[in-house]
Structures are given as structure tokens and as C-alpha cells.
Design a protein that fits this description.
The chain has a 4-stranded antiparallel beta sheet, covered by helices on one side. Strands 1-2 form a two-stranded antiparallel sheet. It has 6 helices and 6 strands, in the order αβαβααβββαβα. The protein is α+β, with helices and mostly antiparallel strands and about 290 residues long. The two termini are about 40 Å apart.
Length: about 290
Amino acid sequence: MLQMYEGIVENEKRRTLLAMVTAMDDAAEVVVTALKQSGMWENTVFIFFSDNGGPLEGIGNGQVNYPLRGGKYSYWEGGIRSSSFIHSPMLPGGVINQELLHVTDWLPTLGHLAACGVEPNDQCTGPDMGDIDGVNQWNAIVGAGKSNRTEFLVNIDPKAKNSALRWGPWKLYHGNPGKGDWVPPPSVNEHRYNQQFTHGLRDRNKFETDQEYVFSEGIYNPDTIMLFDVEADPAETNEVSNDNPDVVNTMLERLVYYESRTIPPRNCVRDPASDPAQFGGVWTPWLKTC
């Protein structure tokens, strides 16, 4: 796999990451092929999604979230906004969906899909899952309606004393949201790229190779409050809390509500017995637990 990207991407860690993604893509093909050979593909909805943005700790680890700000372990859009796709012979293709969805929505959405089928159906409600955080989003996913949510809690961390909330187009940070740099992609040899990959990509000749690494200059404390309109400004470059005090107050009240429903975190002290070095470099269960 690594040979595919030799001479195309200069950054070695980026090449390694791309090779790993290519291997994962090949593994997905194996699954799809097996479903087709078993006669199950025509009745399958294939969902592929990531759980978070790429980690950016340490410049040059191969991950790219640009132009979004930050990465994994942060509350910035580069850390929490992820891409996904859904494919099925039962669904029309070519639809781009930018409705507001949260990872907790998958459970009730898939429950609805299993009970009610792929056709939009307001009469079939699917299984009753009780008071859970997720909501059924199938109609929004297939373009038959709007999102069933207007907000979601990004996180509340009582130990780190920070939190974040999305409400409509707004995103509020209270405390330190984590490292918020803008990290551009590594440089690409456009000529070699176009020779190697000649199908399946639109605008493949368009690369922006002159971006600079931009460090966040923010100094945050537990009292820091920041507000961004992430629909108009997904790169989070324009902080607007002073211009929207009513929005800030409403969102702070919502954070108080969510905090009232939380349970204390069960953070464990690191146990040296869990060190992968003691198990041949492999993460594995160990005797001592929380």
C-alpha cells in the first residue's frame, strides 16, 4: 500500500496513514463482496462513519482536518465534526446531507430502519427506547424532512472544568476547548497524483498548497466563554459572544440543565500494570480494574 503514495505525498506519516486508509477501504470491499455473494446486498444499508476528527498532537502525524480548527481530544469542529456516507441498492444516490445529527442518533435511527424499512414513514414509529439522548433521523437522512434535533451537548467535563454546546447554528465554549490550531494538509505532488489516481475524483487537480500552519493564540481558563456561528463560519475564525449576549445566556442555561442530568465521571488512576510494554506492545485487559 505504501508504494501507491511514494513520490506523491512528501510527509512519511501522511503516506503511512493513507496506506492504512486504503487497506481499510479494501477490507470494506471484502465485506461488500461477501454480502453480494450471499445474496444479502440488495437488502442491506451500508453505513460508514468516523467517530471524531483526526488527532493533531505533534505536528506532522498524518492527520488532516483542515480547514476545520483543532482535532481529536478537543471540542473544536476539527475534533467533533466527522464525515460519513450511506449506500444501499434501496436508496437513491448522489444526495449530500448537512442536517444536524449526533452520534447518539444512530441507535434510534437504525431501530426505526429495522422496524419500518427505508421508505419515509411517519406512521411507523419503530421501537420505544425510552428516555435516551438520541432521536430518529431517518427521514432527515434520506432527504424527506429536517433534522429532529436543534441542539446537542458536545461535552461537560467537571474535572477539566470545560463544556461545549451546539444550538442551531451556534456553538458555545465554556472553559478551555483544547488545542485549536489550523493545520493544513502536507504538500502533494499534483502531477504524480493525477497519474496515479485517474478516476473517481472530481476537481482532483485542485490543490491549495500555500496554506500556513496557524497557531491558536487563545489563552483559556474555566471562565472563558466563546461563541461561534459554525454554519456561517465552520472554521471558527470569528468569535462573536460580545455581539450575541442573549444567545450566550440561553446556551449557558442549557449547559446548566445538562449538567443537572450528568453522573460523576469514573476516571481511574493509571495502573502501571496496564502498560502495553508488558504484553508485547499490545493493549489488552489486565488484572486490576476500576
